[in-house]
Amino acid sequence: MTWTTGHDTITGLIAAGHLARIVGDAANGDYLLDQGRQRLASARLIAETDPVGSFELAYDGIRQAAVALLAQQGLRAKIEGGHAGTSQAVRAQFGHEFDWFDTMRRLRNQLEYPQSPADMFIDGGDLTAALDYAGRIIAAAEQLIPSLTIWQPTP
Known about the structure:
- By secondary structure, the protein is mainly alpha-helical.
- The chain has helices at residues 7-15, 30-46, 51-72, 82-94, 99-112, 124-144, and strands spanning 19-21, 75-77.
- It has one domain: Up-down Bundle (Four Helix Bundle (Hemerythrin (Met), subunit A)), CATH 1.20.120.
- The chain is 62% helix and 4% strand.
- A two-stranded antiparallel sheet has the order 1-2.
C-alpha cells in the first residue's frame, strides 16, 4: 500500500537530513522487530531487580519497533535526527499511539544523563505503563509491517 499519512513530515525529515532512504536487505523491518521483542522480554525479566534498566529496555523495544516500521518503508534515521527523528516520523505516520514514545524518550534521556540522584528513579507505575505500552506498540508494528511498502517521494 502507498502510505500517504505523514508524507509531508517524512519529506521534511529527509530534506533536513534526519532520515535517509535505504534499499535491499536494510529495508526489511522483521529483524529489527525481533530485536524489539527481545528487548521487551528482557525488560520484563529484570523489572523487579532493575527498574531503570527495565524502563530503558522497554523504551529500546519501542524504538526498535519504530525503526522496523521505517525500515520496512526504506527509511532510517540518521545521526542528525536520531531517536527524536524516529519518534517524529512514526508519530506523523501512525498517529497518537506513538505520542508516549517521545515522552519515554525524554525520560530515558534523563535516566541516561542524570543531573542528580533523583534523576535515576523510575516510579513503579511508570515502569508498568512502559512495559504495557511497549507490548502494545510491538504488537501494532507486527500488524503494520506486512502492509507497508517502500516510501516514495510523491504520494
